Amino acid sequence: MVNASFKGKEKLHAFLSEKEHLSTANKLNEFFTRFEVGGSNAPAPLWTDNTVTEDSLVIREDVVQCVFESTRARKCPRPDNTSGRDLKHCTAHLSGVFSSVFQRSLDTQELPLPWKTSTVVPIPKISHPFSANDYRSNSLTSLVVRALEEIIKAHIIN
Predict the structure, then answer these.
(1) Fewest CB within a 10 Å sphere: which of 64, 104, 113, 142?
(2) What is the top-level taxon of the source organism (predicted)?
């Protein structure tokens, strides 16, 4: 049985040509990226002082494993093609690698470029959207970076 709203989408897409689909996609892209500032991809420092103190964060493998295990498996793949299922079911193998990558990232004050990218997905606010204002944006960021953020947040709070 086909959902009634899905039938409407089929009818709508049947009347639109490929050129109109591309035009709509380009308009949405311009709308959602209107606030982005063009510029260099140079990494911004996370902090200015490189000295290690007793409060400095040291990423441990068991902490990374705990955060990866708490990831919801049904999360869709993100811009870096890492899915929640991958992180959840392969924590024993991935936690050692990512703990050293996280630590190096903190020590050098840089994030790898794929971790800085996100995919913006337009989600309709109403059943039949007509303009770009009828969509809300949903930004899909890397689950690996979200795990790092969770570790840093826990360190700051404690």
Answers:
(1) 113
(2) Eukaryota
